[in-house]
Amino acid sequence: MRKADLVSTIADKTGVPKVDVLVALETFFTEVKESLTKGENVYVRGFGSFVIKKRARKIGRHIKKNVAIEIPEHFIPAFKPAKIFVEQVKEKVINLPEDLSEKEQ
């Protein structure tokens, strides 16, 4: 499902115009991004948490030059689904389409 599909689905289910749904969705995304850049996690009860994870410093390899490089410690955004969300997905998803299950492997 893409963003346009999500906007259409929400608009159909709520009766709110698509433009308003799009504005609300874009505002949500913007607020999550701004909160994470400030170092604040975002918790949505029953859905999950948008959190900042710290990646430790490590040694990597530049493949083309075959040289070891240092990757400094850095922070990345991550999503951790709520326990109830994970349980619902486990219960509801019975048969994954083959194209999805192949991507996992």
Features:
HU Protein, Chain A, 2 domains, alpha+beta, single chain, two-stranded antiparallel sheet, three-stranded antiparallel beta sheet, 5 strands, 105 residues, extended
Q: Which architecture of the largest domain per CATH?
A: Irregular
Major sheet: 3 strands, antiparallel
Number of strands: 5
Write out the strand line-up for the largest beta sheet, numbering strands in chain order. Answer: 1-2-5
What is the C-level CATH assignment of the largest domain?
Few Secondary Structures
Ranges with pLDDT <50 over ≥5 residues? none
CATH superfamily of the largest domain: IHF-like DNA-binding proteins
Tally the helices: 4
Rg value: 19 Å
Count of domains: 2
- Helix/strand order: HHEEEEEHH
Estimated structural class: alpha+beta
Distance between the termini: 21 Å
Looking at the structure, what is the overall shape? Answer: extended
Proportion in β-strands? 25-35%
Share of helix among residues?
Answer: 40-55%
**Which fold name corresponds to the CATH topology of the largest domain?**
HU Protein, Chain A
Average residue-wise pLDDT: 90
